[in-house]
Design brief:
about 180 residues, alpha/beta, about 20% strand, globular, 7-stranded parallel β-sheet, Alpha/beta knot
Length: about 180
């Protein structure tokens, strides 16, 4: 097999990307401290047609060299907003009719592979701080929690890896229904 060239990939510029139909999925970052994680999440959101990212609290906003290092320009294509608190973002999303889902290890969570997306529903996926996770107040405000099954010696994944897995799950189920 021969690797594709950059021209064969038919990459869009940011303006053409913004015109594409997006999934009804917003990613909410609750106090994510690493700018490289933020950049990686932008890049994944770009790949899977996420409609926007809400950057909350201490989460850095573009333009930042460390975000750009991993986003590679996706931060210029993916729509983003900043909110002083995650609760402010969740309140706006709730008013706009989103189903709020924290990605967190809680009693009563739904394992990601068991979660079926519903066409026509708008989703907000909340991911949290690299050590503390999603704030309990935000978990309490959500309609449910998704959890990734894990079987090793560690009980968490890097937030950017988790975000990628969750976005892929939503993309698989919704990409051909929007």
């Amino acid at each position: 097999m021969k690797k594709k060239t950059v021209l064969e990939l038919h990459r869009l510029d940011a303006e053409h990307y913004r015109q594409l139909a997006k999934l009804p999925v917003t990613v909410v970052l609750d106090n994510v401290r690493s700018e490289m994680n933020v950049g990686s999440i932008f890049r994944t959101a770009d790949a899977f047609l996420v409609e926007r990212i809400c950057l909350c609290g201490i989460t850095s906003t573009p333009p930042r060299p460390e975000i750009h290092k991993t986003a590679l320009g996706a931060e210029e294509a993916v729509v983003w907003t900043h909110h002083a608190t995650v609760m402010e973002a969740l309140g706006e999303l709730r008013r706009d009719g989103y189903t709020l889902l924290a990605v967190e290890q809680v009693h009563g969570s739904t394992s990601l592979e068991q979660f079926a997306c519903s066409p026509g529903v708008k989703y907000a996926i909340v991911l949290g701080h690299e050590v503390r996770g999603v704030a309990q107040e935000a978990v309490d405000a959500c309609d449910g929690c998704l959890e990734l099954p894990q079987h090793g010696t560690k009980h968490s994944l890097n937030v950017a890896c988790t975000a990628a897995i969750v976005m892929w799950h939503f993309y698989q189920q919704l990409a051909y229904h929007t």
